[in-house]
Amino acid sequence: MLVRMMADVVALRPRAVHIMAGTNDIARNTGPMTRQQTCDNLAAMAMLARANGIIVLLTNVPPAAAFPWRPGVETIAPIAEINRWIANDARQTKAIHVDYSPVLGDGRGGILSSLSHDGVHPTAAGYAAMELVLAPILGRLRLQADNPNVNKLMTINRPI
Description:
6 helices, mainly alpha, globular, 8% strand
């Protein structure tokens, strides 16, 4: 995502960017990744956005009790660690912290089974729950588009 930040975000000159990352790093989908590397990448993306006058919405890593494609990989503790860093960084840099855990989480570190087909990726119902958190934030920032389809929340969960 960091490599694509200039072309896919900055060059398009959006008013805001919604950064939700970390799941693929924890799952090691593109190889080993330390927590510090993940946090450094998040910080760099946010810094590039701010330097270009783009409002930063920095989101927590969504809850996941396990990654079905990576049995045995610890998820709960690493997600919590990165999420603590995200909350702190958002406070320090004046980014807008978005936490979907209250609407997605099962209270044990996983995602509610009714909101995900695999315990990681949200279903349409999961995205609808996330919209309940995001829509008021976008409203306060006056970032809602006239076209309601523009505000649909989508996440690409694939390695680069």
